[in-house]
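Continuing the batch. This is chain 6 of the set; chains 1 through 5 are on the previous pages. Same settings as before, nothing changed between runs. Recording input and output for traceability.
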Amino acid sequence: MSPSRAAVVSIVLVALAAPMVGAQQANDPAGDPERGKIVFRTVGGCANCHGWAADGKTGVALHSPAGPSLRETKLNKEALAETIRCGRPGTQMPYHDRAAYRDDRCYGLVMSDFTPGDAPPRGKTFGEKDVANIVAYLQTRVIGLGKPTYDECADFFDNPAAKACIILK
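Output for chain 6:
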């Protein structure tokens, strides 16, 4: 192949690949940690089990089961997103994907694979954008942090006078 023909082939391949790279990026949203905090705090009800600090302790609603500490989780971005979408079978972690367990997108299982009481409960439905937002929130403001601080509490509640924060002063 002549050098000029090789250059043309290379340009064509790059031009064909560019839309695929853009499509991959569009399917892998970075997420907005601030929006993720709001979903975690309100819509998702995540703080009911995981606590406001996501440590499984602080602010746990008495009627809700205690969730594991997300501050200590070893889950990566993909595993966090899968857990939010699909819940955790055999636990109280709800699934938030509208189509979870209708097909095998969640752990290769469908709802008929579960015995009564073992299927994860259904939570509020989240779109992919909010799943990415929650993951971004967890990765930037929760995972790997030590003991919860007053500043984190005030930021979580958007209120430095929040009652939950008083004991951290």
